[in-house]
Amino acid sequence: MLDGSKLNKNVPIPLYFQLKELILSEIKNGSYRNAELIPTDNELSEIFKISRTTVRHAETELVQEGWLYHIKSKGTFVSRPKINRDFVQTLESFNNQKQYSGRTAHTELLDFKVITAPTALIIALKLQHNDKVIYIYRRRFADEEPIVMVETYVPYDKCSFLLSHDLAKESLYQILAMYEETHIFKIHHLIEAVEASTNDIQNMNIKRGSAIQKCISMGYNLYGDPIEYSSARYRGDRNSFEIIIAPNIDFEEHPKQLDVEV
Q1: Burial, 82: exposed, middle or buried (Cβ in 10 Å; 0-12, 13-18, 19+)?
Q2: Residue 81 maps to which CATH number?
Q3: 3-state helix, strand, coil in the chain (%, to 5)
Q4: Same domain, 117 and 229
Q5: How far is Cα 69 from Cα 175, in angstroms, rounded to an integer?
Q6: What pLDDT digit, counting tens, does each position of 170-182 carry?
Q7: Average pLDDT over residues 245-252
Q8: CA–CA distance from 36 to each of 93, 109, 157 (Å)?
Q9: pLDDT top residue among 185 and 92
Q10: Considering its fold, how many domains does the chain have in total?
Q11: What CA–CA distance (Å, rounded) separates 262 from 259?
Q12: What is the pTM of this model?
């Protein structure tokens, strides 16, 4: 069963992530079986001497990944057999995605600095006039071929710790996940086809008139606060997007029913 002594507060691994892994381990080894009630938020908070917010963060990710489900006024239970992970959209780093496809990936950091937030981003990132943002400009390669240009903005007051990291070698999302407030929990993408700009032509060695897949992304933390705004421009001849529809499970209203919404 869950043992509070196994959570280590002296290592740089987020507490919610440690708790999540401990619960998952107990599920996998059979300590908690299908449809069995797990300890309440208050009980877990007491066992591990952590906040209920941290407990809920761990539980929320396990619910989203299909390991747990919640029934209002009854508690949180171990889920029925999981939906195949191949049908669930997950957040992956660029390097991992390319490794899975058999290609060697690397990133070139073109710019990395603190600037005053552009007017267009003040509303998107819920900033105040003259607030600062960290600007990150990257060119990404697959097998030494440039395939995407990415401009990213994150609030400086929440993400200043990024400045001590090497974003040519480290994953932005993995760094942000070190802290609960900046961990990217949800991303909204807007994708459209556009024609290559002069900058695209110069940086990705493509011809004038080539197709570009422009992707605007907004990344949000667990509490719905905007953490990241990115504009990525993908080579149309080297990239494709797979859209995955996952079941929307409402266990509070329909515990045994799977509804797919498009």
Answers
A1: exposed
A2: 1.10.10.10
A3: 30, 30, 45
A4: yes
A5: 28
A6: 999 989 989 989 9
A7: 45
A8: 34, 48, 42
A9: 185
A10: 2
A11: 10
A12: 0.59
